[in-house]
Amino acid sequence: MPTTRLYQQFQRLAQQLGADEREISLAEVADLLCCTPRNARLLLRRMQEQGWLNWTAEAGRGRRSRLTLLDNQEGLIRRRLRALLQQGLLAQAVRVAEDRLDLLTPLLIEQLGQATRAGRQILRVPYYRPLPHLLPTAPLRRSEVHLSRQIFNGLTRRNEENGEIEGDLAHHWECLGPRHWRFYLRPAVCFHHGRELETEDVIDSLQALRDRPLFAHFTRLESPWPRTLDLHLDSPDPWLLHLLAEPVAAVLPRELRGTAGFPLQPVGTGPYRVTTNDPLHLCLSAFDDYFGLRALLDEIDIWMLPELAERLESHLQLGSDSPELGTMRGESELESGCYFLLQDDRSAALQDPALRHWLTRLLNPIALMARVAPELQRGWTSALGLLPHWREGLAASLPEPERLPARLVMACFNQHLEFDECGRAMASLLAEQGIRLEVRFLDYDRWVSGVDEDVDLWLGTLNLEHEQAFAPYAWLQGTPLLRRVWGQQQALWQGLTQWRAEEEVPGPRALLAQVQRQHWFVPLFHHWLELESRVGVHGVRMTALGWFDFRSAWLKPEQGAQQTENGA
Fold it and tell me: How confident is the model at residue 72 (pLDDT cuts 50, 70, 90)?
């Protein structure tokens, strides 16, 4: 691969001379390149070897030689960008392209999909935003939940095929009493940075969660013998094994917890480790010392392409249609969740049930879909409950509110294109009724904290990993925003606590339906998730989060279907 210096020297020649054939002396070339004639001759020879120019030297003092540039500056930049992208050097490619996104973006799309480099199988995947927070101990968005599953492990995990709980870091367990469980840990489990997992790492990780509602019933953790963990509860929990399979219950190396840079480049025990994470590029490399089956793909390269945001929020594409590389095959399904609106019980205006009912009717899915772009309409279907098969009964009609507020504030999280459209649609509907809607875009961690007390409405979206009763329960209990915006809904929180211990009382669906009938919770749309993969990418099956399990994907060599560092 030519050096950066050689590219720069050719660009200087191209800028000065253009593409015409001309007579020029070696001394004049040396002046243009700011080097000695001897170095100029060497540079010209190397450029000719690359096919960039023809140089016909004439011997003798004062004799002029012939120089023809065979490539223009734009063509050279394009070839250089392609070479850098084939090497996975995205940051360097962006620096070379500078403001020429018209050159870079098509080349990025061209490089997506399968590739090989030095015998390693690589899958390049596009995404529309950076992923700087990968720690599962923080509230995570859909894609971060998926990625945390590839990086970390908990004591248990959920089998995606049948939904059953199975061993992960713990290979067996037993319930010694309603409030006492014992777990037996696997031997020789290593973290990505090389240290072996110890029981103290598990104790430290679970103890750090006890201030959260989901884990408040943990009273004591201890290790009576090596690789053995005893967990004591203050109340029975028949859902404990499901709880320990939640992303937030992942085990972290205790010495790295809270260190700077850990959320950006975390260390776990999972099948993939983070090797690069910057605003342009997330690279996951297969962890050779993983205690389970080693992943089949050597690398997952996720490239951030914000120019494609309107497609990549819910549509994951592994490659593109190409006669040489094969056609694309696709999957689609409705998300296990929905876009929703929360009405905040801290809002003075929303204490009026009639106003909440009026807003629910005004900001209904049909009215909103009529005011957004057609491509968004095609990806949405109206929601009557949190999950697609939850069709909750409608609340009784209420009279019109006696007075409408002049202004309402709605918060949503940023880097989400569809919230822009949805916010504008809501603002236009309310403006026709004389209400000004202020749409406030927040970072996700601020949005999910719910600390902004002057907000009336909260626009959000939710994807659950499965549809068992524990999933909506974990969302309700594990999302700080809900505790703040529904702080006065004591029946909800008391009912959830009772259900976890007893199971037979009204569960999460019935409790949330009651909140929905009071219009504190307003489901809007279910979203169609799509996954397309090129023929030749095998083992790809879309998960409930719209991604695929990296561990099972693999590339089958086919005629013309691979790219190498020497060319596509």
Answer: low
